[in-house]
Amino acid sequence: MPQDLPRPIQPEVKPALPHDFFPEGAARDDFHRWRRNGLWQQFHDTRRRQVREAVGKDLEPSVGSIDNQSVKAARTSGSRAN
């Protein structure tokens, strides 16, 4: 960049968080550690059981369902009429 042209202004951007919050990235780092060591799955499973018990269902689901497109496109042969 030639010396006679002004440099663009680069404002310093800082997170707008109060000073007493955890350091940036701390919660993310904790989450990744919990996920790696299985604690996150354990929390999820425990919470699911608590919710199911609260609504009067068995603690573990008995049936699963995976939704897939139920009507598949049929193969056609021949030519189309325009």
The percentage helix is 25-40%
- Proportion of residues in extended strands: under 5%
As residue ranges, the low-confidence spans are none
Strand tally is 0
Radius of gyration: 28 Å
Average the pLDDT over all residues and give the rounded result: 78
Helix count equals 2
Distance between the termini: 60 Å
User: Main beta sheet, described?
Assistant: none
Task: Indicate the structural class.
Answer: mainly alpha
The geometry reads as flat
N-to-C SSE string, H for helix and E for strand: HH
Molecular structure report:
By secondary structure, the protein is mainly alpha-helical. 34% of the residues lie in helices and 0% in strands. The protein has a domain at 24-57. It has two helices and no strands.
